[in-house]
Amino acid sequence: VKVVNAIREDYLTALEELATLVPGILRTRFRLRPLAREEARSAIEDPARVIDQSLGTPGFDFTPGTVDALLDLLAAKPSVALSGAAVIEPFQLQMVCQYVEDLVRRLAASALRGVANEGKAEPAIKIDFADLGGAPGFHRIIRQFYERQLDEVGQSFRRRSLERLCERGLVNPLGKRLSEEENEIARQFGVPRKALLAMAERRLLRAEPRLDSTFYELSHDMLVEPVLAARSERHRKQAKRRWAGIAAAVLVSIGCLLWWIIVDHYRHELVQSAAKARELAATDTEKALITAVAA
Fold it and tell me: Cα-Cα-Cα-Cα dihedral of 282, 287, 288, 289, to 10°?
């Protein structure tokens, strides 16, 4: 029997406790490191060329220079290996590849509609750097990964609850990732287990079984910045709505005050007019009596 264990580095020491029972448990180890440039190139190009009907996307290719441009941007803020060579963070690479795959899926659906209408052979799909929006589009892909995953999962579950979980429950005010137990998540934020599994499948969360339960956290430190940015933006919009509500209430109050002043002014004029009318009526009556007596 051969067993493969996949474990985070910070839990590696826990395996030493099993060394007395399984002496060779740490004998063969392999550390998954960030990717070198050519390894990242293979991770981008090789899966794209696979043609398999069971896959959700058809095979596709990149125009010349597109992959190099992506690698240049991915290595703009690279991690550094122990050897000192620049390497590419796999999680960031995964964000870009996931976006490309979604783009190919949309292009394929559009192309198939054209094929059905025109009766032509199925066209080959090639992704150009311009399809990704160039360098600005690349950075936007990284920033918007969080929102895109919420959009996807939010189609089946209440998005507001997902936002509250990520932005309040899984990141503290200092910008550090937190871990929450799934039952506590359901109690505090109303996010069911199926939603958590969907978010983990979209690589937004990471599930970690421990203490006879499952704990969830943001899948990578790189997500903290967009999560905090989204939280700040939502707070800004909420504050804007609150101020808009206050402004509307003030305007309504001012309108009511003006209305009351106008009504009171007209009421005062009516009272004055009625008094003058009574005064004139009394004067006319007096004159009539004097005339009658004189006659």
Answer: 90
Task: Identify the residue with better confidence: 2 or 101.
Answer: 101
Q: What is the chain's alpha carbon radius of gyration, rounded to the nearest angstrom?
A: 35
6 pLDDT higher than 50: yes
The number of C-alpha atoms within 13 Å of 211 and in the hemisphere containing its C-beta is 9
Phi, psi of 210 (to 5 degrees): -165, 155
Q: Is the dihedral of CA 258, 259, 264, 265 positive or negative?
A: positive
Burial of 68-77, coded b for 16+ CB within 10 Å and e otherwise, reads: ebbbebbbee
CA distances in angstroms from 28 to 20, 23, 31, 160, 215, listed in the order given = 16, 11, 10, 45, 28
Residue identified by tokens 């740490």 is: 26
What are 163-208's pLDDT values in tens digits? 999 999 999 988 899 999 999 999 999 999 999 999 999 889 999 8
Q: Backbone phi, then psi, for 3, in 5-degree steps? A: -125, 135
User: Is pLDDT at 83 greater than 60 in this prediction?
Assistant: no
pLDDT at 84 over 70: no
Lookup: tokens for 203: 């690589």
Tokens of 189: 């934020």
**E strand or H helix that includes residue 86:** strand 86-87
Rounded distance, CA 270 to CA 250, Å?
A: 30
Q: Which residue has the higher pLDDT, 269 or 78?
A: 269
Question: How many angstroms separate the Cα of 243 from the Cα of each of 164, 246, 250, 257?
Answer: 22, 5, 10, 21
Identity of the residue numbered 277? A
Question: What CA–CA distance (Å, rounded) separates 182 from 165?
Answer: 11
Residue 48 to residue 23: CA distance in whole angstroms: 42
- Partners of 1 in the β-ladder: none
